[in-house]
C-alpha cells in the first residue's frame, strides 16, 4: 500500500491543491492528515471540502480543539485566537461538525497517527525530546510506526534493540530498516517553519518498497498572502509564508 501523510495544512488551500495533485501523480492509495487542517490560513472551508472529497482520514489538531473547546482556545496565544475567530466565520456548519468530531488518534497498518505527541495528545509538542522521554514515548504505544504533527518541522526518531536516534530530515527518500520502530514528523503543508518555508511538504510512504519520501512542492504563495490580507487575518500569518 502507498500512503500519503499530510500535516498542519492550516487553511492554506493553495498549498493543499499542490499537494493533492502531487499525491495523485504518486499514486497514493490512502491519505492521512495529522490535524490542524484549519487555523492561520484564509481558506478553511475549501480545505475541509477538499479533504472530505478525497476521503482523507484525519485526526484532531489543537486548532480543531480550539474550535470546540472555549477553555482551550482561551489558552492559545493572541494570533491563534484571532485566526480561529475568523476561521469559524468562514466555515459552514457541516464543516464545523466534521472538524469538531475528529478523533484524537487513528490506527491503521501497524501505524499510529496523532497530531501532537503519542500516544494520543492533541496539544503536546515533540520539540527536541530527550532520550529518556523518547524511551517513554516508544513504550507508550505498541505500533511499529507513528506519525505526529504540531511542530511544523521535519524529523524522525528511531528505536532499535538497544539505541534511540534522532535526526532532521531533508527533502529525500529513505529506506526503512526492518525491525526498527519509527516516529516521524512530516513537517507542514500550509505553515512550514523551516528552511523551505515557501514549499508545501508531505510524506509519501511506499510500504511494499519500504521507503518513505519527503516531498516539497512550490505553490501559489502570493494568492494565499493576498487572501489573508483580504480576510483580515493577522499580518504574522502571511509573513511566515515568505521567510
Description:
The model has no long low-confidence stretch (mean pLDDT about 95). The radius of gyration is 17 Å and the shape is globular. It is an alpha/beta fold and about 240 residues long. The protein has 9 helices and 12 strands. The longest helix is centred in the N-terminal third of the chain and has 14 residues, at about 15-25. A hairpin with a 4-residue loop joins strand 7 (about 155-160) and strand 8 (about 165). The strands form 2 sheets. Strands 3-2-1-11-12-9 form a 6-stranded mixed beta sheet. Strands 4-5-6-10-7-8 form a 6-stranded mixed beta sheet, covered by helices on one side. Helices cover about 35% and strands about 25% of the residues.
